[in-house]
Amino acid sequence: MGGSVLAVQQIIKVIKEKLADRFLRNLGWLGLSQLFIRVSRLAATIVLARLLTKEDYGLAALVLTTNEFVNVFTQNGIWAKIVQADKADLPQLCQTSYWLNWIVCGLVFLAQCIAAFPVSWFYKDPRIILPICVMATVYLIIPIALVQASLSNRENRLHVSALANGIQVSVDNILTIILAFFGFGMWAIVLPKVLVAPVWVIVHYKNNPWRPTREFTLDKWQEIIRFGRSVLGVKVMHTLINNLDYVIAGRFLGVEALGLYYFAFNAGLGISMSAINALETALFPHLCDARSEPREFKSRYFKAFKSVAWIIFPLVILQSTLAPFYVPIIFGQKWIPAIPILILICMSAIPRPFANIASSGLWAIDRPNWDFMWSILFTAFFALSLIVGVNWGVLGVAIAVFLAHSLASPAYTAWVSSYIAKLMDKEIATIEAQETV
User: Where are the transmembrane segments (predicted)?
Assistant: First the structure.
């Protein structure tokens, strides 16, 4: 009898070890994908820095920023609900989500095409109308595989996401290099993002067996919207945070100054943001998988901080230290004025992933509304910082970005982590008390 108990305990131990390793394994797949992405993006950045003008960069930034603001409505929490939902509800939620995705993406396509006109008026540049409308066509393609992508994340099969993103972005960067050589200007940045959209769809569609039925249904849509509205709110705030500096710099400092800032942001924060996005993608399903086991959930949550620290600190410090040397050599002398901006933006990456871990923790315990409220507060603080900073040009904007993240994000991370620790301890105590009885 004792031997059987021991065997069962050993099996449980092995299962837990496998679950614990899954996060690092998924992070490894995503990291490998990001490595290929970064190599191709580095090549594209070098080519663009030498062939495109600051004005080309500025125009592309205006188009991509507009797209980011509209695109956020496709990140409406439908995918997160599929990842977080109970297994019994999954079939109906997937079918409803499929049709909701088509409705939302169709409306987003129309919204972006309409928005192109007031945006061009705001920046006083009609050249951006057509590329903004062209980029909107992506929304007529991606609903085909959005549910499949969500299910792969739910099943912790993140190698599929890694493959889709790796191929899509790498091909995007290769096409960008080719078009830049042929003198396409800002279109070298914009057009490839439309051409590679089917790649993402094909990879996810082929790697997940789920298929919609012909029945149109919106059953349980209230449940999806109730969960998703807070997630959407958070994504809207994050999009504002990630793009407000572009909006303010472009409006008050001009297209050429925005081009300098946009180059510094992408050359400096691109690598770090790739690591941050890989972590965020892997962490949420990893935490949801352990939600019914508070001790395991707490362990996974706090181990994530250690994992990200080992990645982000060396990466940011190394890149910031070497920036004065590699920027003029790799990108050209004309980008030397961007070096201080690059360093500040790069350093602002340090607190960001820790705040993202806190957000994932709140989502996993069904508190996305708390994260939404925090996002509203931080966005207001961030906007105020940028408005003050813009008085000192693009360098002032970079300083504002650095200070806002460095002051606010650690405070939020500490507060959420304290709450999660107390909640998990309370649940652990309840379970132990029930076992004793």
Answer: 99-121, 128-151, 174-203, 308-329, 335-351, 372-390, 396-416
- Domain contains 7: no
Give the helix/strand (H/E) hosting 197: helix 197-206
User: How does pLDDT run across 106-157, given as a tens digit for each residue?
Assistant: 999 999 999 999 989 988 889 989 999 999 999 999 899 988 988 887 887 7
Q: How many domains does the chain have?
A: 1
Output the pTM of the full model: 0.65
C-alpha distance from residue 106 to each of 131, 142, 204, 361, 385 (Å): 18, 11, 20, 32, 35
What per-residue confidence (pLDDT) applies to 37?
60
The three state secondary structure string of 84-153 is HCCHHHHHHHHHHHHHHHHHHHHHHHHHHHHHHHHHHHHHCCHHHHHHHHHHHHHHHCHHHCHHHHHHHH
Q: Are 388 and 399 in contact (CB under 8 A)?
A: no
Query: Mean pLDDT score of the chain, rounded to an integer?
Result: 82
Report if residue 50 sits inside a domain.
yes
**Phi first, then psi: what are they for 125, rounded to 5°?**
-150, 100
CA-based radius of gyration for the chain:
22
Which is more confidently placed, 299 or 67? 299
Q: Report yes or no on 1 lying in a domain.
A: no
Q: Looking at the domain assignment, is residue 403 inside a domain?
A: yes
